[in-house]
Amino acid sequence: MAIAAAAANLCRGAGAVSISYSRRTNVHQAFLCPTAARPLLPPFSLRCSAPGAPFLPRLHCTLSADEILISSSPVPPANDASPPSDPVKDAADLLEIRVGQILKAWRHEEAESLYVEEVDVGEAEPRIICSGLVNYIPLEHLQGSKVVVLANLKPRNMRGVKSSGMLMAASDKAHENVELLLPPEDSVPGERIWFGSEDEKDNQPDPASPNQIQKKKIWEQVQPHLKTDESCVAMLGEHRMRTSAGVVMCSSLKNANIS
């Protein structure tokens, strides 16, 4: 204990080193102390790193029959610490959610509960998407509307119509009321939507492929965490859903599920 305390008292400077104190092979103590800015006084022997260097190389010092090992410990400054990983946010960043605009919509000929929509998502051709919204949204409300499209799902055959994507909507717990998510009117079809602050727009990773979305069940991981808040803003936990023109909302459903 006295040896360790003496080493700690004599150490000075920036950075941190770990010290393990042993007598022969039995380790008695390990702790952190500042790195030395000058050699320790006798009977210690210590080679120091250059002033201002953040970490020390492996160092040795001795005191009579006791053996002390001082080695570098990678302890970064607190303000450089990386934020903890958020697996749900990481999964959500792999979704390809885009601003869409419905060009045309009609009733599915073979399914009473489905609409079929042609949706501009910024591609060479509009996408065909089927939506189970007949019982919730009048057809005339769809025509020309800006919508939010989950675009990297695998296409599905829905009663003879190949649906390539999903319109995202909010619903109450009883699923009696459903409202489409609405990007700001100034949003541009095709723009990729993200979760987080405004400055996170340019830090989005590439979206996962439809096969990866299905195989890794990425949508299933994210969807339970999507809600609207008290202001009807679409949220992933504490992260707002955004376009360059502003946040994504629904018309009136608060604290509602999003799917």
Automatic annotation (TrEMBL):
Signal peptide: none annotated. InterPro entries: NA-bd_OB-fold, tRNA-bd_dom, Tyrosine-tRNA_ligase_regulator. One of its GO terms (molecular function) is tRNA binding. It holds the Pfam family tRNA_bind. Residues 91-194 form the TRNA-binding domain. Coiled coil: none annotated. Keywords: RNA-binding, tRNA-binding. Residues 191-213 are annotated as: Disordered. This is tRNA-binding domain-containing protein. It comes from Kalanchoe fedtschenkoi (Lavender scallops). The lineage of its organism: Eukaryota, Viridiplantae, Streptophyta, Embryophyta, Tracheophyta.
